[in-house]
From TrEMBL:
It is found in: Secreted. Pfam families: Glyco_hydro_18. This is chitinase. Gene3D superfamilies: Glycosidases (3.20.20.80). GO terms for biological process: chitin catabolic process; polysaccharide catabolic process. It catalyses: Random endo-hydrolysis of N-acetyl-beta-D-glucosaminide (1->4)-beta-linkages in chitin and chitodextrins.
Amino acid sequence: MTFLKLGSLFLSLSLLLNLAATSSAGQSGGGAIAVYWGQNPGEGRLSKACRTGNYDFVNIAFLTAFGGGRSPVLDLSGHCNASRGGCAALSRDIRTCQKLGVKVLLSLGGGDAASHSLDSAEDARQVAEYLYNNFLFGKAFSRPLGRAALDGVDFSVAGGSTRKDRLHWEDLAGGLANYSREGRKVLLTAAADCEFRDRTLKRAIAAGVFDAVWVRFFGGATCQYSPENLLPMKLSWERWNAKAKAAALFVGLPAAEDAAAGGGYVPPENFTAQVLPFVSGYPKYGGVMLWDRYYDAANGYSAQVKCEVKDCEVNTDI
Ligand SMILES: *[C@@H]1O[C@H](CO)[C@@H](O)[C@H](O)[C@H]1NC(C)=O
Ligand SMILES: *[C@@H]1O[C@H](CO)[C@@H](O)[C@H](O)[C@H]1NC(C)=O
Ligand SMILES: *[C@@H]1O[C@H](CO)[C@@H](O)[C@H](O)[C@H]1NC(C)=O
């Protein structure tokens, strides 16, 4: 197993996985909750999200433009204006989150596939270096999120229209993984549709570089939840578990009815009754990813499923 050499996060992830593996199907707990933050100023501060204690991972969304010689663009949709250094103050919030044990990642991508792509292995290497220097442990002069070092990078990408272009997501992930040091693991995660139709990250996931994959059961996928027929969701989860070379898989869900165009919302009580007993029975089950913090804060989704997904008793002791 590759986990052993990879430092503290992996230890905690594998601990979660062990907990999940030792609980038989039907029991719960032992999972983690991930959320996206950054796409709606109405969602409130990052530090406030972390102080809820509901989240274990927060993906700051998004670095929308990068690669192919583009100037990188961090777009936090009105939270702050990164082009004038106006997002550097987020460093305090990031550190607050990290002190609370929340892993904070920079999410690459977002909706507009045309604004990000990688032309070559060299392009991927340069983007990895840029990310390391500007968001991770590197020492760029002007860092968009200030001096706090993020825990890793999330790939929520769609760009790369040709097969050859898509190869380079693997180069980028591998380049970032190469910056991991003892005690300073660069955490790598990816968001992918529950269907295998989307081939953008297929090779990168197959290369085994991602610590976690958030499998999106929303946005119009045929494998979304339906109360009458759980089979498509179950088959998708089974396939991801059998095929994905990632240490942990998360069930990605909209945090409210309106959170995702194309549906996929599972009411919390349906989730805990119908979905969780099934998904948590798999050894790669890592927990739940919610899109996004705004809708979660409005709907209280994570608050409602927290004690079933995580071990509330265990967590209050930590
Ligand atoms: C951010 O600042 C830049 C530079 O001053 C400005 O051109 C841009 O319009 C601002 N963006 C927003 C969304 O306010
Ligand atoms: C990562 O480092 C290894 C060993 O130095 C090197 O062979 C490999 O090319 C690097 N990978 C990337 C994608 O930069
Ligand atoms: C939740 O589950 C109940 C009982 O199975 C079902 O009737 C209802 O339609 C489900 N709700 C949604 C939104 O799927």
